[in-house]
Amino acid sequence: MKRLALLSLLTLGLAVPAFAEPATLTVDFGHFPKGTTCQVFGTTGRVSLKTGKEIEYKIKGDTGNVSFRCMQPDGRRFDVATGSLLPQGNFKLVAMQINQDNHAHVFWDQGGLQRRTIPGILNWN
User: Tens digit of pLDDT for each residue in 85-118?
Assistant: First the structure.
């Protein structure tokens, strides 16, 4: 009986995703050359785009498996998957800044602003 209960707990633990989906995810592509364009994939949520000095996406709903495919003016392309960058926990808003020098800053509120820097996030094609 003990083994069955332990096995059930382990199975349940494997079925739960490691990262919860925030209600809103903002992703800002900073320090990329002017003319860089991106497409968003892996969401059925509402996506809004703001361009100017930087490219900023705001995604509401279905944020756990979002990825981007981007192209720079010189023709170089890269992909970035944001789902694995999400912090563990249940947060209403997570903000990310993706930088061309291949790292991301991830921000969320957990009784105060939290920040994590993650290197090696761009997959160049």
Answer: 999 988 999 999 999 999 999 999 998 999 999 9
At residue 75, the pLDDT reads 96
pLDDT tens digits along 31-41: 899 899 999 99
Average pLDDT over residues 1-24: 51
Q: Which residues does 65 contact at the CB level (< 8 Å), separation at least 6?
A: 42, 43, 81, 83
String of DSSP letters for the chain: -HHHHHHHHHHHHHHS-SSPPPSEEEEEEESPPTT-EEEEES--SEEEEE-SSSEEEEEES--TT-EEEEE-TTS-EEEEE-GGGSPSS--SEEEEEEETTTEEEEEEESSSEEEEEEE---EE-
Residues in the chain: 125
